[in-house]
Amino acid sequence: MPKVEGPTTHIARVSNVAELATLVIAIGALAGWLSGSTILASFLPDKTPMNPITAVALLLSAIAVICLRAGGDTRLSLVRGCSFCVFVLPLLSLSRLYLPWDLGPDRLLFARRLAVPVAGFTNRMAPVTACALVFIAVALFLLTFESARARRVGSAAAMIVGVVGLAVIVDYGYESRSLSTIGGFIPVAFNTGLALLACSIGLLAARPTEGVMLLVRNGAGSVLARRLLPAAVIIPITISWLELRGTDFGWYDNAGGSALVAMTTMLLLVALVWRDALRANRADDERTGAESKLREVNHSLEARVALRTGALVQTNAELSVEVAARRRAEEELRRTADELRGWFEASPLAMCSLSAGDIVLSWNRAAEGLFGWQANEVIGKSLPIVSDASRAEAAELTAQVIAGKPVMDYETQRLCRDGSVREVSVSTAALHDAAGKARGVVALYTDIGHRKQLERQLHQAQKMDAIGQLAGGVAHDFNNILTVIQAAAEFLASELDEHDTRRADALEIESAALRAAKLTRQLLTFSRQSVVERQPLDLAGVVDRTDSMLRRLLEANVELLIHHQAGQGLVNADPHQLEQIIVNLVVNARDAMPRGGRILIETQSAVLDDNYARAHVGTIPGPYVMLAVTDTGTGMSLDTQARVFEPFFTTKAAGEGTGLGLATVYGIVKQFNGHIWLYSELGSGTTFKIYLPEMSEPGAVDAAVTGAGPVAATRGTRVLLVEDHAIVRRAVHAQLERQGYLVTDAESGDEALAVLHGGDDGFDLVLSDMMMPGLSGLELRHRLQDQGSTLPVLLMSGYSENAIKRFGSIDQLSPHIEKPFTTALLTRRIEELVGARGDG
Questions:
Q1: How far, in Å, CA of 463 to CA of 435, rounded?
Q2: Tens of pLDDT along 468-495?
Q3: I need a labelling partner for 275 at 20 to 30 A (CA). Which of 256, 383, 679, 824 fits?
């Protein structure tokens, strides 16, 4: 495709030609001075040649104009440098006129050649030339800026230079010295005038203003200017020159020549104006004809449109009815879709829709809350909640649903964003397109983790009850057998002489029967079938009475600590069985510390609320008295914790224990309608907490259980929950959310720091487990304090506060809350800390 030339291209071409002419003239003058050629130096024989410094200044000006048109920061800096040189050189040459010494650089560079007068003058830079060069320097400097005002002033300076150059050329053409010199100074050289005019044109075209662009545009004004301006310049000069030549030849006197010039100029200008007027009239006539023809065509089109409009009116009416019906259908469809979308997003069940290839199509807010992924993170991608091991199972379910067999209440496991596994119930149905073809599935997920946990607790409780019934039945039957054995052994021993060796065997049989009877009593206690003598007891007093006996059971390397909370209530229990509980727990703790350690026994009041009861099968809400025994021993694994209360289960070596100690404790606690809770971690010790119902006056009701309930949480309070055990984390998360807190989960201290990476803005409190792999809760608190954070950190632990303080495992424990805790206690502690922070 040929390149289309626009006005800017023409202007650039004019600038190139003008500056090329300036370069040729300046280089020619310098070559003339160096070679001694007067023609190159002056262009006219016996006329004033161009001063060599003038040639240098014009050469620099031409180079600067070329760089100015090219643009760029480096080139603009070069332009400003050249403008400075062009400005300084004429000022130095003019120094001789106003200073007592001559600073002209031509006296230094061309002194020998300039000593010879030319045309009656010693060659120096003419004052007119010097002034023109100063204007060139000013124009170059101002045209380097983007300001419109600076460009206008620079273009004005360039036009002044062009006027000077044109005056010099005209002066030489008319053989006059009135325009090329001032007073008795050397006149401006002819080639200098040509170079000044060319440089002026190059400057105007390098950065054209509105006035210069007038000459190249397509408007009527631009056309008129291009036609008349050349005539306005050429005609007066040509006619005046001819008039001078006629006068020289004696064809007419001065008056006749002037009349001839006036008449000729008038006729030529009138002819030009007349020609342009005729062209303008023809253009108007053509435009008027085109407008008339356009109106005729327009009238014809309007008539045709009117005819067609009449034919389309009825059709449009029919279409309007159809369109209205379609719009009503679309509006109904849109309303239904919005309603379905609202149900989908507001559903408490996690819902998502999938394509046949298990690509997520939709994901509601409940799914975000259940699994942790936001909708924009999963839509359009493969379903992230399916583990690699379950992908075949999920694909089979999808294929089954698409084949027309919906799946209901399918129990499985799915991944969460934090890496934990959640037990869910899945119900699915097929999604069909407009043609009725199954194109995907919709799935509903129900979190059944809490239900499964309760089922496991119920199963454990049923298992323990079944074991208890079995143990009780066996114990009763075995007691009958032991009675016969013991009686027979006594009879046999009494009939044998003391020196009879058989008598020793009979006594051994009797002793073994007594030991077996002790075991059966323990089994009866576990099965809650032993006879007890209940009475109101102060649990702290029972512990104190066993103090001396307990210390005799312990080695010197085991330290026993006892702590009681003031104001405890009474419990209705058998004092001997309570002592047996304490002894069994202390002995068990001692055996878990073969290298020594510390045992802490605590008693205090406690309130177990409805939330705690729902999470622990068989617990009745109400006031309790707690007995806690904590050791610094080896701790227990999860498998051991699951079986620790089973009869005859022991981790000790053969012959070192019967496995009935903790089973007996469990039976006694259940016999008194109490609850026992175990907290242990490998390498971090174990805590047993026993809750026995507190005796109350008839009709008295504890407000913490049946009254106002938990302290009202501040709506919008944000809590960062840090807990490494997923089951515990979900349970505490649910407790907090039910009280109106906004909860964010983290499964480690490092993840919590990442959540708080920019500061604690947005969170009101951190609730963290104290014992965690990696960064513990206490270390997390220290890190935040080192960073200058005032965010309160409430620590959770299965160990009691006094146990931790006395064991010396941390320096600054408070604030702290013991597991298990009630919702009321947790809410109260959070609101105390958040309120204290706000008051501070």
A1: 55
A2: 555 555 555 555 566 667 666 766 777 7
A3: 256
